[in-house]
Amino acid sequence: MNKAQLVEAIADKLGGRQQAADAVDAVLDAMVRAVVAGDRVSVTGFGSFEKVDRPARYARNPQTGERVRVKKTSVPRFRAGQGFKDLVSGTKKLPKGDEVAVKKAPKGSLTGGASATVKKAAAKKATTAKKAAAKTAVAKKTVAKKTVAKKAATTVKKAAAKTTVAKKATATAKKAAPAKKATATAKKATATAKKTAPAAKKATATKAPAKKTATRKATAKKTTARKK
To answer: How many CB atoms lie within 10 A of CB 49?
Structure first.
């Protein structure tokens, strides 16, 4: 059955061929637009139409067997409803007379191009955006806390290093103080020795002539004794 035959099949029920053609065109147009927009068109008892994304892949040319790169694309997919499957498999029998095989869908079951679907999609996107923003804010706060902690740790390390240097300098100064005192004492002793040296030399020089005089007197006495 093609489109023209479909129109002829429902023309009597809709009051004329033109009305049937307009109805078929309107239904198909609404379904196509909804699927292209990414919505899922579901008709209870009949099936659902939806858009499916296929990633890029490699295929083979059936004529040459050559391997061909197939680009990423989107394709429509139809899934038959359980009522439709049961009728095709023979589990259920087709109704006789004017009764329709697929019962009238309840309100809200036809979701192609409906504002409710659009609203749901918008709500999902808004929720996803809010969650992403919340995660980003938490991540920023965590990074800020880590940065502050690192800076504090660095400051503590620097302060500890300065304290260590100050302690070492104090210890060095304490060790150097006795050495300075010893050096000052040595300098004083040297100065005292220098002052004492001239006095000792003078005393030695003064005593030396006395010894020479005594020697001369002894020599004179011996000479006089010999003359006698």
So the answer is: 19
